[in-house]
Sequence to fold (294 residues):
Amino acid sequence: MDIEQLRYFLAVSRYRNMTLAAEHLYISQSSLSKHIVQLEEEVGLKLFDRNERTLRLNSAGHEFFSFAEELVAKHGVMMRKMQQYRQPDEGHLTLGSIPIMSQYDIHRAIAAFAKQYPDITIQTFEEKGDHIVKMLDEELLDLAVVRTVTLPSNAYKVIPLADDELVFVTNTNHPLAHKKPLPLREAAEESFILLDSGPGLYDLCLSACAKAGFSPTIRYQHTRIESIIGFVAENIGVSLLMKKVISFFQHPDIVWLELEEPATSTLALVFPHGKKLSPSANLFRNFLIKWFKK
Fold:
């Protein structure tokens, strides 16, 4: 049993799906399945209840999860403390991000950084914004990529990476589908399907509706953008999503419209004020800043 196996176990536990967990970890599904089977064999117990689509922790799995989470966290703290004794171009860093790495090209930036600095290992976590900030506060992360609206205070050093704006997302046959730009007040009677991403973006959606003079009827909340797109495509409701995020997905049955009164948000690289970054984290910070300036 090693730290990587525990990281794989935690990812499968959180995503409850082998394919999604494998995408998050940047490994093949077959390789991830093999690691989970090996881990269960070593423990001598099944840790998941399995059906065709999902994996859920059983009683033993829930108890194992608490130990695994603590061990991975302590390993991360240990590795960061050791950075001060290593050369800048070798070492380890932990990066937390809201689940937008692909949409904002961050996965390509990480891959390019890894090629340039092959002796620096990068551990990534994708979670809701409030959870990422909590991990940052608990020193479980070196750096984090979040929307600034997620930050609860000004206790963080904020390095803006990209600005984005809310857009209205609807079915192509919807009566509002051709209103460009859209006065959001015209959607006051619609049923909304919003992204359950924690405080910040959700509040931005509510604020945009309030400025338009109404409180939205929220029919569903989902953690995955693909699910929202599927429901909107079936004309079950409408949504508000970030422009660069929805532009990443191609679906023939949906259309997005800019708002007449823009609601904007900034994606930023953040870390606590006063925190001394490790040499590896400093290298990545500078690399990411240059990457977004291209």
The chain has a mean pLDDT of 89. Residues 163-265 form a domain with the D-Maltodextrin-Binding Protein; domain 2 fold (CATH 3.40.190.10). The first helix runs from residue 3 to 15.
